[in-house]
Specification:
GO molecular function: DNA binding; DNA-binding transcription factor activity
Structural class: alpha+beta
Largest sheet: 3 strands, antiparallel
InterPro entries: ArsR-like_HTH (IPR011991), HTH_ArsR_DNA-bd_dom (IPR001845), HTH_MetalResp_TranReg (IPR051081), WH-like_DNA-bd_sf (IPR036388), WH_DNA-bd_sf (IPR036390)
Protein name: ArsR family transcriptional regulator
Number of helices: 5
Oligomer: single chain
Radius of gyration: 14 Å
Strand order of the largest sheet: 1-3-2
CATH class: Mainly Alpha
CATH topology: Arc Repressor Mutant, subunit A
CATH superfamily: Winged helix-like DNA-binding domain superfamily/Winged helix DNA-binding domain
Keywords: DNA-binding, Transcription, Transcription regulation
Number of domains: 1
């Protein structure tokens, strides 16, 4: 896979509403999968599939802590992307009004 293909993979992963919400939730810090499950009310299998896609795109990291799996955003550059997109959208909506 080349760099352009990997960039597209990142945007595809973020392009799903559920995954984008997961990423925004993780911007506040590391969360165990149980907290993600409480927040999003999806089946464990569905949530795991979304987390796998985010992990495969290099957007999140996971770490086993005791019996729990914890997820966090890979690095602050990812947070910057999310914040920049939200700022951009806010600017568009302000200009529409």
């Amino acid at each position: 896979m080349n760099q352009e293909d990997f960039s597209v993979k990142i945007f595809k992963a973020l392009g799903n509403p559920v995954r984008f919400k997961i990423m925004k939730f993780l911007c506040d810090g590391t969360k165990c999968v149980c907290k993600l499950n409480e927040e999003f009310k999806y089946s464990q299998a569905n949530l795991s599939q979304h987390l796998r896609i985010l992990k495969d795109a290099g957007l999140v990291k996971s770490e086993k802590v005791g019996l729990e799996m914890h997820y966090r955003i890979y690095n602050d550059k990812i947070k910057d992307i999310i914040c920049n997109v939200e700022d951009y959208v806010n600017d568009i909506f302000i200009n529409i009004k």
